Amino acid sequence: MQADTMQADAASAPFPAHRAVPTEAEIEAKARARLKARRALVISLRIAILVAVLGIWEIGALTGFIDPFFFASPSGIAEQIWVWMTEGTSQGPLWVQILVTLEETILGFFIGAVGGIVCGIVLGRNKLLADVFSIYIKIANSIPRVVLGSIFIIALGLGMASKVALAVVMVFFVVFANAFQGVREADRAMIANAQILGASPFQITTSVIIPSAMSWILASLHVSFGFALVGAVVGEFLGAKQGVGLLIATAQGAFNANGVFAAMIILAVVALVMEFLITLVENRLVKWRPVPYSEQN
């Protein structure tokens, strides 16, 4: 009896108001608004952290809590960069030093990346070659890079060649390891299906293996450009006629902490700009890749 009464009350209740289902355009607009708000929040937090660190650093230098002779100060670093931009450096105009280092870095990055990708794919596809050359690759990779830099300077001189060679070595092993692992991690089922359909080994490599390893390779390129920059700067630090690394060595010899930090900031800006360009190229090459979860929330 009670159940019948509840059913009657439910039947006599007013019908709930109809809710409008959002359209696809509205959902997309809301998602874009959330993404835009998140990007603004990230940029604001980055700027806030930078301002806080620089402010604490400057206050510490002014109050004597931080010794500016050893650790410099933001105002001193900014002044040093301004002097280099307006009056030039002891080696010549600042933009010339940046271009020299950037040219060495790009050449080393390109040669090392291409060599690492090719060798990684070839050895990844041929187990015999991988077993034969693996010991030599491990030995070469274990040699300290500073030692190699000294050898390159002795063999190739103080010019650009020695810096490019060191940058190539820094990049090669990073890209090679990722390309090799990416080839080994390729989907065996897809390879088998391609073989059943009559694909040649070359077609399997270009149509299945390389696209499968592309994420590994592109991930290594982000890291390896920084290694290329390190290789070029270390080579210039060991011996050079021009370059940002020579600026660091000169500032160190003069106990100019502001000059050392100023050169480091210039290198950081160059690295960030090139990272942005690599990201643009990556986004064009892998349009099929789904949007990362971090960008969806």
Task: Give your account of this protein's structure.
27% of the residues are buried. α5 runs antiparallel to α6 (127-142), α5 (94-125) packs parallel to α8 (160-184) and α11 (244-253) packs antiparallel against α12. 82% of the residues lie in helices and 0% in strands. The model has no long low-confidence stretch (mean pLDDT 84). It is built from 13 helices and no strands. It has 297 residues and is mostly helical. It has helices spanning 2-12, 24-63, 68-71, 74-87, 94-125, 127-142, 145-156, 160-184, 188-196, 201-238, 244-253, 257-285, 293-296. The chain is flat. It starts with a helix and ends with a helix.
How is this fold's topology laid out?
Elements: H1 2-12, H2 24-63, H3 68-71, H4 74-87, H5 94-125, H6 127-142, H7 145-156, H8 160-184, H9 188-196, H10 201-238, H11 244-253, H12 257-285, H13 293-296
Helix pairs in contact: 4-12, 5-6, 5-8, 5-10, 7-8, 7-10, 8-10, 9-10, 10-11, 10-12, 11-12
